[in-house]
Amino acid sequence: MRLSTTKCLLLILLAAICFAGWSxxxxxxxxxxxxxxxxxxxxxxxxxxxxxxxxVRLKRSGKQPHDLTKQARLxxxxxxxxxxxDTRMTGDPDLGITGLEIRFWLEPGALTGPLKLRxxxxxxxxxxxxxxxxLGIDGHDYYNSTRW
Length: 148
Fold this sequence. Notes:
Immunoglobulin-like; 5-stranded antiparallel beta sheet; alpha+beta; 4-stranded antiparallel beta sheet; 9 strands
């Protein structure tokens, strides 16, 4: 009896470890648009005096460089497109821009509905859900998938 209980507990522990690993290493979006040339690695939402900061972190997904002449735009559920409030780039002279961090300032209610990011020649899904996100006690949260 004791041996079967131990095996059952080990099996549950193994399943929990597998689920945690899958949650940690899964992609943000399963099939990102290759025209965007980047993939989203995470999104942070912070509350600031009733408004929201949405920070989208991206990593280059191919060999094509980022087109600096095409500014990123956040597409809201109602079709409006917002310009970024801040864009930070990382990389080196040999590889070019390999990472982006794009911040948007959103008015109250703008997080209701899906969000898309127009980048280079593609569109990436930032948020697929329709509900406004529930932020933590400290007023911010980090998302590693489109389901928030």
